[in-house]
Amino acid sequence: MSIKLIELPFAETALEPAISAATLAVHHGKHHKAYVDKTNELVAGTDLADAALNAIVLAAANRKDGKLFNQAAQAWNHGFYWHSLSPVEGQPDGALAAAIDAAFGSTQALLDTLVEQGLGQFGSGWAWLVAEGGSLKVITTHDAGCPITDGLKPLLVIDVWEHAYYLDRKNDRKAYLTAATQILNWHFAARNFASDSAWEYPA
Ligand code: MN
Fold it and tell me: Which of 33, 55, 139, 142 is the most buried (most CB within 10 A)?
């Protein structure tokens, strides 16, 4: 078994104008593909050769294998990022909306926090909405950092590596973040919030 480059869950043009087809083509077809390919190269012939990506990420973190962790976690993070975005407009509802209101006061306050934290992340990384127990918080991770290694349950993520926005926005990370918060997949967030365990990268 090897890790697969999952398909985008929408057409390449579907997120325009927030994120262009040109950006998605490179981001998915080059960057994400490279992380998947390198993960497969690194686990070939090892005890992780047949493992699922979640298990590879956790094993690499436990073993402090930074070379494997960076590739595997980036493969996982990108799969999670594609699912965190949606061309279908929506708003959180039900238990998720209640948890957002309890933690942030309102959905808009959560979105503002995601923009603020994403802007404050120095260099490459990710801005996440995560659940810890039943409560929500926004965190950032550096480089390939992935919250599942800290026992947190990710609900949504925004990629803040420059490759996520430079073609569209040059250095204007705030414009990208603001646009990205308008295309978040609240159904995906609600499924993650309701689940007993972290999202599994599809086999
Ligand atoms: Mn990326």
Answer: 139
Q: How far does residue 82's CA lie from ligand 1's centre (Å)? A: 10
Q: Walk me through the domains of the chain, giving residue ranges and CATH numbers.
A: 21-84 (1.10.287.990), 94-194 (3.55.40.20)
- Those residues with Cβ within 8 angstroms of residue 19's Cβ, 6 or more apart along the chain or in another chain: 85, 164, 165, 168, 176, 179, 180, 183
Amino acid at 141: T
| Tokens linked to 140 | 């950032």
The SS3 call for residue 140 is strand
Q: Which pLDDT score is estimated for 174?
A: 98
Q: How far is the CA of 98 from the centre of ligand 1 (A)?
A: 30
Beta bridge mates, 158: 127
Distance (angstroms) between ligand 1 centre and the Cα of 136 equals 24
pLDDT in tens, 88-145: 999 999 999 999 999 999 999 999 999 999 999 999 999 999 999 889 999 999 999 9
Beta strands in 68-152 (DSSP E): 125-132, 135-142
Please tell me the distance between residue 157's alpha carbon and the centre of ligand 1 in angstroms: 11
* Residues 60 and 76: beta-carbon distance below 8 Å: no
pTM for the predicted model, two decimal places: 0.98
Q: Which helix (H) or strand (E) holds 130?
A: strand 125-132
How far is ligand 1, taken at its centre, from the CA of residue 144, in Å?
A: 9
Alpha carbon of 33 to ligand 1 centroid (Å): 11
